[in-house]
């Protein structure tokens, strides 16, 4: 059968055998089916391949491999079906065989055999019936057909059962007399030996129990006290089908069950405590948060007061090294302390004497249970009076357990109970140890996280500007707020440019962590290097975009590298001579402009994709800004956070700037952080506020230079006169040398038009422009060369010099110090 049912074509193998069995046994059907209920054989061939039918419970039992015999009403009338499972050698259920017989078929067979049976036994039956009726009619009426032996056996059996069951049984008459009581009931109710036959009210039971038993009402599982026991009572009437009126009472002692139930509930609560502790303590990667979670879980479910103390190296993210003496941990979290008992103060360093339970626990590396912590000598030094005050509040036992992980002690937790609860026992010692183990794992994770976070934060601090450069072009202030629990990639920068100009930068790298911090440093360095080329903002952003794309291609080849694509940067150049501000942007950072009259404007900058995505050129816009205008550069973390969208934050930023038009840069930063910054920013925040300045026109002088070497001397003299008029007598000699060399270089190697401009600020700036894009190069002239020393002299006498390119040529500039700087 098993081989045939498991075969791909079982029906041809099984059909003939099934039919032979059906015909030989005279049943109506023999059906073989598989585990899906599909018929493999059937007397009616069209039904082969169809599902077996019948009552849902019957079919379910057949398909679950049960052996069954059931009667049910089918479409052909009442039928009886039997089924057995078919299994493989390993016992696996692979199908079954169902045999059906219709009741009418059985009746037909009986009809054929009944006359013969009746005929052959009629005489004997008549004789036996008559004799039996005469001799035992009365006995049958009294014993209901049982003889003396059967009656004796039945009585002995019932009596043995009645007195051996662990349940009390009482039989009461209708008038309340006790007819029968078993041993268990006699013991539970403390009945006397002569209790049977007496009225229930004469048995000395408690009044409420006497009233209940005498009531005769139906009772189901009611709990009633009886002395020091709790009894579950059931009462049922015996007045059924002519039986004598009365009631049967059953009693069960649940006192021990209640004790066990109480212990089981206590064990369940402890398991739930450990489960909750495992979830909550591991929910934080911050050391203080981890300690506070242990306190919140343990108070008041396990202890009335809990303190968690961590060793000092752990708070720094380091791993403590033994010996731990003297034991002086840092109290990190406390819970359950009454306000009038300030013995436990968070944030302090506690020194424990060697005899204290805390020191002994750390030294032994195991939990210590102390039932009577009354000796003030065992308390931390300097706490005698406060310890006595807390003991007076009812502290009667404590458990202190070290927080150890991988053999290293990280701190300790102490659990205290007051007079409100039972003293700690050995079971509580195990619970405290388990709580400490789970806490130690989480504390070590938090310690590692603190260590790594400190390293990343230190890296980020070295990559962010340590201070803003000293310059006259704008008055600036900045703020940086790291992301909560992580290090982000936002940055800002202020880069002085030649020609009394300054570059203002705000940038954002996606993601958090060491990769974001390192990438931020790379991009900030790249922006500073590109700024040295003195290119326009849109060209600088294009160079930065190409760099990001190239770096990402390198990371694609490194499976462990992080991508930079998606970074953003805003770059603006302010010229304090012309008052012109040119800016370009890629991606996230934003800018808001406030004019001196209080008008707030958001410059309509062309939309550009983040860095690295490419495909579109970057465009710059130019604005004319009067003096005292404020430029606010920010990253998205300033505006967005839980409960605050970017649109809401931007509108709040606008209203704040409009309401306070006269604030300086530093006050503006403080105001924006107080009013605009979300309570929990979604990312780190970089904010840069710059108030523009314009160079006084009286400190600007410029002339056209004829394209003739003979014009060098007159122009030099004119510039010297202007410097004397500015009161810069000490700077004339150096300036004349620089001016002479720059003009001579432009006339010899450049093309017209040639112009010279002098700018007086904290330094003297000399700019010579011409129409050529040829770049000058500093070189060391040989002793036999007649020229080539001009730029070398300029580099020696000037603080800085360089070249920047314009749409019409180039500008060679040099800065010389004033006032002896």
Automatic annotation (TrEMBL):
Pfam families per the UniProt record, alphabetical: GAF (PF01590), HATPase_c_2 (PF13581), sCache_3_2 (PF17203), SpoIIE (PF07228)
Keywords: ATP-binding, Cell membrane, Hydrolase, Kinase, Membrane, Nucleotide-binding, Phosphoprotein, Transferase, Transmembrane, Transmembrane helix, Two-component regulatory system
Signal peptide: none
Compartments, record wording: Cell membrane
Domain PPM-type phosphatase: from-to ranges: 471-692
Keyword Protein biosynthesis tagged: no
Residues annotated as domain PAS: 156-221
Principal place of residence: membrane
Gene3D superfamilies: 3.30.450.40, Histidine kinase-like ATPase, C-terminal domain, PAS domain, PPM-type phosphatase domain
Region described as Disordered: spans on this chain: 1-22
UniProt membrane topology term: Multi-pass membrane protein
SMART domains noted in UniProt: PAS, PP2C_SIG
Name this polypeptide is given: SpoIIE family protein phosphatase/ATP-binding protein
Species the sequence originates in: Streptomyces yatensis
């Amino acid at each position: 059968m098993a081989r045939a049912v498991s075969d791909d074509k079982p029906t041809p193998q099984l059909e003939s055998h099934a039919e032979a069995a059906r015909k030989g046994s005279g049943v109506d059907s023999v059906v073989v089916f598989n585990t899906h209920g599909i018929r493999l054989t059937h007397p009616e061939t069209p039904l082969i391949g169809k599902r077996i039918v019948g009552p849902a419970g019957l079919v379910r039992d057949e398909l679950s491999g049960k052996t069954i015999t059931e009667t049910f009403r089918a479409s052909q009338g009442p039928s009886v079906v039997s089924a057995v499972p078919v299994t493989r050698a390993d016992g696996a259920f692979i199908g079954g065989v169902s045999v059906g017989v219709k009741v009418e078929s059985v009746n037909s067979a009986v009809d054929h055999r009944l006359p013969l049976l009746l005929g052959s036994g009629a005489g004997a039956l008549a004789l036996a019936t008559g004799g039996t009726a005469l001799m035992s009619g009365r006995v049958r009426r009294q014993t209901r057909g049982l003889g003396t032996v059967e009656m004796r056996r039945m009585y002995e059996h019932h009596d043995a059962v009645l007195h051996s069951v662990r349940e009390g049984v009482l039989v009461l008459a209708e008038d309340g007399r006790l007819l029968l009581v078993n041993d268990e009931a006699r013991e539970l109710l403390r009945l006397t030996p002569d209790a049977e036959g007496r009225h229930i009210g004469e048995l000395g039971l408690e009044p409420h129990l006497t009233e209940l038993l005498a009531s005769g009402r139906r009772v189901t599982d009611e709990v009633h006290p009886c002395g020091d026991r709790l009894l579950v009572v059931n009462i049922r009437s015996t007045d059924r089908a002519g039986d004598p009126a009365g009631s049967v009472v059953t009693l069960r002692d649940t006192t021990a069950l209640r004790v066990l139930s109480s212990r089981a509930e206590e064990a369940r609560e402890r398991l739930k405590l450990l489960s909750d502790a495992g979830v909550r303590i591991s929910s934080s990667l911050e050391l203080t948060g981890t300690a506070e979670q242990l306190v919140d879980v343990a108070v008041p479910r396990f202890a009335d007061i809990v303190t968690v103390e961590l060793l000092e190296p752990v708070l720094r993210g380091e791993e403590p090294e033994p010996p731990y003496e003297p034991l002086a941990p840092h109290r990190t979290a406390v819970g359950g302390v009454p306000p009038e008992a300030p013995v436990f103060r968070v944030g302090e360093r506690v020194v424990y004497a060697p005899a204290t339970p805390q020191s002994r626990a750390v030294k032994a590396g195991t939990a210590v249970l102390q039932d009577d912590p009354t000796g003030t000598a065992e308390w931390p030094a300097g706490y005698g009076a406060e310890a006595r005050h807390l003991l007076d509040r009812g502290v009667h036992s404590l458990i202190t357990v070290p927080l150890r992980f991988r053999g290293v002690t990280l701190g300790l937790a102490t659990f205290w109970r007051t007079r409100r609860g039972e003293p700690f026992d050995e079971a509580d010692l195990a619970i405290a140890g388990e709580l400490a183990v789970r806490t130690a794992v989480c504390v070590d994770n938090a310690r590692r996280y603190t260590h790594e976070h400190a390293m990343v934060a230190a890296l980020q601090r070295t990559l962010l500007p340590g201070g803003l450069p000293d310059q006259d072009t704008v008055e600036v202030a900045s703020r940086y707020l790291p992301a909560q629990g992580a290090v982000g990639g936002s940055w800002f920068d202020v880069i002085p440019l030649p020609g009394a100009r300054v570059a203002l930068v705000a940038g954002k790298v996606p993601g958090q962590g060491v990769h974001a911090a390192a990438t931020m440093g790379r991009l900030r360095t790249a922006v500073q290097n590109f700024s040295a080329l003195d290119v326009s903002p849109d060209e600088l952003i294009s160079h930065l975009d190409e760099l990001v794309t190239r770096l990402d291609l390198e990371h694609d080849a490194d499976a462990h590298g992080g991508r930079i694509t998606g970074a953003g940067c805003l770059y603006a150049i302010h010229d304090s001579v012309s008052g012109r501000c040119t800016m370009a942007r890629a991606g996230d950072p934003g800018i808001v402009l406030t004019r001196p009259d209080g008008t707030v404007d958001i410059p309509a900058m062309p939309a550009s994709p983040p860095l690295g995505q490419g495909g579109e050129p970057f465009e710059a816009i130019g604005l004319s800004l009067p003096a005292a205008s404020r430029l606010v550069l920010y990253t998205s973390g300033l505006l967005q956070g839980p409960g605050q969208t970017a649109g809401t934050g931007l509108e709040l930023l606008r209203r704040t700037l409009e309401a306070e038009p006269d604030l300086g840069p530093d006050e503006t930063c403080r105001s924006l952080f107080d009013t605009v910054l979300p309570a929990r920013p979604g990312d780190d925040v970089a904010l840069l506020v710059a108030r523009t300045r314009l160079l006084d026109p009286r400190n600007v002088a410029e002339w056209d230079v004829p394209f003739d070497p003979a014009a060098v001397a007159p122009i030099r003299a004119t510039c010297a006169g202007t410097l004397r008029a500015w009161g810069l007598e000490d700077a004339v000699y150096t300036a004349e040398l620089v001016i002479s060399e720059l003009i001579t270089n432009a006339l010899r190697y450049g093309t017209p038009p040639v112009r010279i401009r002098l700018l007086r600020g904290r330094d003297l700036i000399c700019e010579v422009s011409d129409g050529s894009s040829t770049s000058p190069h500093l070189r060391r002239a040989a002793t036999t060369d007649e020229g080539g020393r001009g730029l070398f002299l300029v580099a020696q006498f000037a603080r800085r010099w360089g070249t920047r390119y314009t749409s019409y040529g180039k500008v060679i500039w040099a800065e010389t110090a004033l006032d002896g700087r």
